Amino acid sequence: MKWHFPSSWCAFTADEADAQPDPRWTEADPLRGADVGWLSVSREFVRRGARPGQRIYDPFAGFGTVLLAAHLEGCEAIGTEIIPARAAALRERFREHGDAVTILEGSAAHVSPAPQSIDLVVTSVPYVRPTRPPSFGAGNLYDLPDLDAYLAALHEVLVRTHATLRNGAGAVFFVEDVVTETGVVPLTAHVMQRVADVFDYRGQIAVLYPPRASTSGPALPRNHELALVAERRPARVDARTTWPLLHALVRAGVPLVVFGSVARRLAAADHRLATADLAQAADVDVLVPPEPEHVVRAARVLAEAGFELHLWQRRVTPEEITPALLHGRHYLRAGRADLVIDVCYALDGRPYTHLAASAIDVDGIAVASLHVGV
Ligand SMILES: C[S@@+](CC[C@H](N)C(=O)[O-])C[C@H]1O[C@@H](n2cnc3c(N)ncnc32)[C@H](O)[C@@H]1O
Description:
It is built from eleven helices and 18 strands. It has 374 residues and is α/β, with parallel strands linked by helices. The chain folds into two domains: 9-231, Rossmann fold (3-Layer(aba) Sandwich), CATH 3.40.50; 239-367, Beta Polymerase, domain 2. The strands form four sheets. The chain has an eight-stranded mixed sheet, sandwiched between helices. Strand 15 and strand 16 form a beta hairpin. Helix 2 crosses helix 3 and helix 5 (147-164) packs parallel to helix 6. The protein is elongated. S-adenosylmethionine binds at residues 35-37, 59-60, 62-66, 80-83, 86, 107-109, 124, 126, 136, 139-142, 157.
């Protein structure tokens, strides 16, 4: 992706008066909405990192400021929030915007959009609260006062969030240091390191706010936060993990033909698996006949091998897959940390029989004979 930042800082004067969530919701909140971000800031970053029509994901959605910004910039808004009351407030906030938001409830370490389906992540990282008792419930990063436990939990969310990004897509994490009665937790440095462990870290933009009343104690006054800018690490297909899986599908009775970027890489290597540069492919596309039973059988094999299954944005188990659910959706996406396999069951202009008839056997697997540029 291309970031359009002319400078390593940007300054904001005041947010729009009507940009805050309804006080009915924030007043009932344990933090009283103190962690709600500025709509103008989110809009600026969405504008600079995405084009209208693209899909924006916020794993820590809160009251939905980022998601509203995404919607107002013409993008699709998808978020995860762990506090049910906040998820409800967020939905309410979108009422006057045609309910144009998808909210997943739960921990972003466990629920997320489908792998490789997101164009940009924009999020404010929940901060560690070293001196306060837990109040939000299990899984909430606010409830982990121990810094190591907090960072381990954040790492889990980062790994899962990273998997949602399309190849080449980007992410922005807003974070600031945490001032306590006794000192300062250098949270920006810790989070920066964790982001760089999982993503390709690209650098930071300082987000400057108007001066505010100085905090008491030893800390310097703060009126800025950092936007950590990162990108997805390119996904890579590894033949040593992919081919045994394809064999398992065929053994289970799933007729399939590999097509797409893996087939093109193989064609470029004269269909020799040993020398093909599959690492340049982001995922594996297989075409199966259109009958639902093949998709369900493939789903069972892949679920057993540890893949999560999605029919577009809907997460499914093999048992939930029905002909009605498959109708009009074209492919089942199976994602694991190391690999994404798209099981396509309808492909315009290239029906299974046509592709299978001209396929080439590559180490026991049918591969479409696509001699086109890679
Ligand atoms: C900094 S706030 C986000 C505020 C949001 N940007 C807004 O302006 O409304 C962080 C949010 O992350 C949520 N959160 C904490 N741990 C989470 C987890 N494991 N999964 C999903 N959300 C989580 C918190 O409940 C909180 O609402």
